[in-house]
């Protein structure tokens, strides 16, 4: 089970798309979002370490997005 609450996913879908999502759909989306968050976090932590920092910054996250071309 994902750690992102179903209700949070349902609220996002509702607020951005004015649509409903089933509980199963919300669970699946939460799992996918968590997997992507793990990849982003890993990249960002590695990048911060390369720059001799122990804290991840917005720049580290932005580099992940830029690097996905």
Return the string of H and E elements. HHH
How many helices? 3
The low-pLDDT segments are: none
Content-based structural category = mainly alpha
Question: What fraction, in percent, of the residue positions are helical?
Answer: over 70%
Got a strand count? 0
% residues in beta strands? under 5%
- Which whole number gives the mean pLDDT? 93
**Envelope shape:** elongated
Radius of gyration: 15 Å
Question: Care to describe what's here?
Answer:
The protein has helices spanning 6-17, 23-50, 58-66. With 69 residues, the chain is an all-alpha fold. It contains three helices and no strands. The protein starts with 5 loop residues before the first helix and ends with a helix. It is elongated, with a radius of gyration of 15 Å. The longest helix is centred in the middle third of the chain and has 28 residues, at 23-50. The model has no long low-confidence stretch (mean pLDDT 93).
Task: Annotate the secondary structure layout.
Elements: H1 6-17, H2 23-50, H3 58-66
Helix pairs in contact: 1-2, 2-3
Brief account:
The protein is mainly alpha-helical and 69 residues long. It is built from 3 helices and no strands.
């Amino acid at each position: 089970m994902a750690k992102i609450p179903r209700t949070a996913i349902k609220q996002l879908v509702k607020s951005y798309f004015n649509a409903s999502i089933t509980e199963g759909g919300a669970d699946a989306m939460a799992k996918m979002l968590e997997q992507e968050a793990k990849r982003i976090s890993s990249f960002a932590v590695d990048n911060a370490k390369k720059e001799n920092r122990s804290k991840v910054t917005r720049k580290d996250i932005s580099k992940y997005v830029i690097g996905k071309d």
